[in-house]
Amino acid sequence: FLGAGKTTLLRHLLQNQQGVKIGLIVNDVAEVNVDAKLVRNGNPDAGLVDTIQLENGCACCSKAEELMQSIEQLIIMGRRRGDPFQAIVLECSGVAEPRNIKDQFNDATDAGIPLMRHIVLDTMVTVVDASSFLELYKVRDSAANRPDLGYNDGESARPVVDLLVEQVECADVLVLNKTDTVDEDELKYLKTIMTACNSLAKVTATQWGVVDVKSVLNFSADGTPAKGRWAANSTLDSEHRLMVENAKKEEHKHEHKHEHKEEHKH
Question: What confidence tens digit (pLDDT) does each residue in 171-222 have?
């Protein structure tokens, strides 16, 4: 949601020192474009950045055509200068529904859109505000009644807690930000909740959105893109199936540990 540190994370990605060439599609170019120019003009060793703004707001509310056209523009930009992007980062609003994003990519693939031969939805990232997550988890208000969370007309009016849970459940990477605002016990509890909601996601605890760019964007040790992660490539049915299977594995591990302890007692 608004204030979780999403823009700060984007700035960190833009200013990465690992040389990852990033194309960026955003809701509001004014928030990050100054930083992008600074990266290009002031630090030649940093990743090359180009930014495109969605005219109709958040990606999950924009028409699929506009989203795909924006991605295609970035691909063309990179190829024309002979230096293609290694990753394209798509920013969503704080009240976005990640399943809608996946649906747009799946629909484009099913429709045989030529662009889909060149791209893949690889990694879903959710930024979680450690300072407010537990409070928001208790909120039953509609997102439409909470403009402070980033709601705009035309976006989802679902209950805040529903959106919060979906954003956590549909992530490959959970960036648990602002960890300096909670104590050690609270942080441990938050990590437990993250794992309970999404046992397959990678949880990265951080402050000020500082993350390992290649790890978050799913690059192998040699710098090449790794195989697409599960959430980005799952359907609703496969998502639930994987969650159930993983929950059974965790239950089995717990039972095995309990039996092992009982054996030691005897």
Answer: 999 999 999 999 999 999 999 999 999 988 999 999 999 999 999 998 876 6
Phi, psi angles (nearest 5°) of residue 176: -85, 95
Cα-Cα-Cα-Cα torsion 202, 100, 7, 216, nearest 10 degrees, comes to 30
Instruction: Report the amino acid identity of residue 30.
Output: A
Q: Are 224 and 178 within 8 A, CB to CB? A: no
**149 CB-near residues (< 8 Å, 6+ apart):** 1, 2, 94, 95, 136, 143, 160
> Which residues, 6 or more positions from 47, have their beta carbon under 8 angstroms from its beta carbon?
14, 16, 18, 19, 20, 21, 22, 39, 86
Give CA–CA dist 181/194, Å, rounded.
Answer: 17
Element (H, E) at 173: strand 173-177
84: part of which helix (H) or strand (E)? Answer: none
Q: How many CB atoms are located within 10 Å of the residue 210 CB?
A: 13
The amino acid that residue 238 corresponds to is S
The confidence band for 19, taking pLDDT boundaries of 50, 70 and 90, is: confident
